[in-house]
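Pilot study result, target chain (590 residues):
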Amino acid sequence: MGILLPSLVLASEFSELLHRADAVRSSDRAAFDKSLARLEALKGEANAVERAHLELLLNYQKVIRGDYQSALGSASVMFDQVQEPQLKYRSGLLVANIAALTREFSLGLRFLESALELREKIHDADIRHGGDVVAGNLYNQYGQYALGLEHAERLLSDAPSARNRCFADKVRFEAMSGLGHLVETRPHILTSIARCSEQGEVLSANAIRSVLAQRWAANGKVRQAIAFLEASLPEVEATGYTRLIGEYRALLATYQLELGNEKTAEMHAVAVTELKGQDSGSLPNVMARHVLYRVALGRGDTRAALNEYRLYAEADKARLDDIKAREYAFQLSRHEVAQKNQSIELLKSQNQLLRLEQEVAHKEQSNSQLMIALLFVLASSLGYWGWRGRRMHRTLRQLAQTDSLTGLANRRHFRAQSEALLAQARQRGRPMSLLLFDLDHFKQINDQCGHATGDWVLKEVARVGRVHCRPGDVFGRIGGEEFAVALVDCDLGDAEIIAERMREAIAVIDGRASGCPLPVSASVGCVATSVSGHEYETLVAHADAAMYRSKVGGRNRISRYQTASATPVPVPVRIESVPVAAAPEAMRAS
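Predicted structure:
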């Protein structure tokens, strides 16, 4: 017994250290690293399951340190090889998180779906709930807010621990914000923030604060939102988490500019652009570039404004491409699941066919008729699933090119078509014009009459605008209430005639049909290649400047771009709702 005692003591210490390291991995990095170092020294005394558990925690450590590829490979192998359900479940969720960070969206969704299939086999409630947190965070990040909210509500209804309740609240508030639902500003959301702080989950607490601040700003409480964000900024910067720091700074830059504090707005925006390790297409970077463009425009520095607009356009295009990639990956994942189910059904049909063939062998008198019927069933099944596959591919292509609300070309597709038309116009030596128009006081329609009425107005604008488009023209919705029309073989004078017809058609839209008495009108900017050249970004920048002249000139009018105009006046900034990056918090919960 004296010989075995040291081994038993070490085994007990190893198991205790494993659970201790697991408990602090997202709240106390120093204690986590120290525990892992001790576990490495003792792993020779551990059993196979404990060594696999240690390998999982080492993969978490790699992710925290930014070694994504090594962690991705190791966790993928673990998911394929390990048999213990909880470790397999958690390793699959970890792969899904890492793949979201490395933009391997299809891979991440496949592992997420595979891990969630094991959910009912997980008896430990905390680990099972961790899967709901990961799924909710990732679905929010992929823009599938309804699924994110579904996982958060399921977790909250299952008596979670205080830590998992903190994560679930964060997922829930982000999903509600993404769906456009009213985010509660009563004590409940403040209680959630306090709960996360008590658990040491600083990232989650400040992510919820960001949602609340955006809600206040949307309701006109901009100064309150600024004070709230500035009070938490030191704590956010202490985390070293680039995305959350960028988000806070970008919101502060946007709100300060809205109040006319250009120097403070510029300071926050520059801080965002200088963050290390930030993706150029992230929403905070897009917002910061937009602020710097407006600041330069307000100072009358046309050269700097054009350069900042170019950087803003490049960042925004990268962000939109990333969003489309996530949407496509999600649709492709759903398509693969459907194909998998179809394959299962087909195999069942084939097995049924084999059984029937065996029966036919014993019934010679009806053999021919049964074989014909069976072949017909099989051919019909194959034809049906082939038709379903082609239809799904057509749907995916349409989703990638079309704005789902209005049916117009989305921003990415409008740009691609316009650049192709501009190249043709340059080659043929033919004129081309661009109209950019923005609905006046659209936020009032949304606030006073509701988002359903706002959606109705947008669809009506798309409908009346199509009437005045000619064959070959491209009509797109490129922002919330912003539309653009590329006019082929059209000089500036003819473009202004078409623009006037569209403006008049929009002005007679009667919002009372949807229960809203507010008028509908648009401010239009008009440019042509004869003045602005054939570069798409330059045309859009000039059209934006012309549209702004319509805004400051009284709205509901048309302005053409002028190369020698007076010093521009700063344009009010449109504030976007910021989806909070979810993957690192989701990783902590898995």
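One observation from the pilot: Residues 1-11, 565-590 have pLDDT under 50 and may be disordered. A full batch analysis is planned for the follow-on phase.
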